[in-house]
Give the backbone structure.
Amino acid sequence: MKSTNLFLILCICFASVSSLTAQKFAYINSQELISELPEVKEANSNIEAFQSQLQRKGQEMIQALQTKYAAVEQNRDSYSPIELEQEAQKLKDEEAQILQFEQSSQQKILEKSETLLAPIRTRIEAAIKEVADENGYDYVFDYSMGLVLYANEETNIGNLVKAKLGL
């Protein structure tokens, strides 16, 4: 009985080891690949232009607020205490609107970035999958993420993926 259990355990261990040795691994440096894609450069340019546009609008809002602050300060003596308090509240409300604009601008930039870059990521992932399927790789690791401590250069599929993407 003990020899049967031992034999069964050895068979399981042998099957596990042999299945591990049959697997093929590869890696890719996705950051290098991304930096070479013209679509990414174009998307980044569009995102930067959109960000600049929002920054200009925010700066205009701040300048307008500063002008209003200066006008209230300059005409301070012509306001009654109640009017001065009302003007101060208006200015605080406008400050809050500027802060809200800045926060929504950051969100809009993130959304624009995701909208422009998501299809590119999907295309890259599809090319990696095609190369892995064509070459029988079971796993593909991303070298740029620090997940690979050592890799034989022969297992780098970057050039194959670049070819698949037309680079």
